[in-house]
Amino acid sequence: xxxxxxxxxxxxxxxxxxxxxxxxxxxxxxxxxxxxxxxxxxxxxxxxxxxxxxxxxxxxxxxxxxxxxxxxxxxxxxxxxxxxxxxxxxxxxxxxxxxxxxxxxxxxxxxxxxxxxxxxxxxxxxxxxxxxxxxxxxxxxxxxxxxxxxxxxxxxxxxxxxxx
Length: 164
Known about the structure:
The chain is 0% helix and 60% strand. By secondary structure, the protein is mainly β.
């Protein structure tokens, strides 16, 4: 039996709770002007934690060169009304990515972090929203090499709920 949810827990990420088939599109080369994408499938399962003030997303990504496990961990800070999202790639099990931090407004969540890519500083943006027609979750990741003046989307995910 799951732990109860706190009565004042945020509901921003409730739309991602459950089990999903995921269609991924990933840019072949990042921040290099590449226009070629690779598509692959995966599975995702998200459960609430921290009494509803967090959740954990367990992922199985079917990359063309082999399966990879990863998790996303999210936690909400009621003092700042922001979410933080960490990514842990099973290929590097002792290294958490820098968390992206942000909030939802009008149904869209936007989250940012300063990070590095191939030795140079970048800005990272995650965007979460529901598909207008299906209501299913959609996610995208973008990088900026110019402090956020321009963005290159390099990974998208479209979710379809698995039958119960």
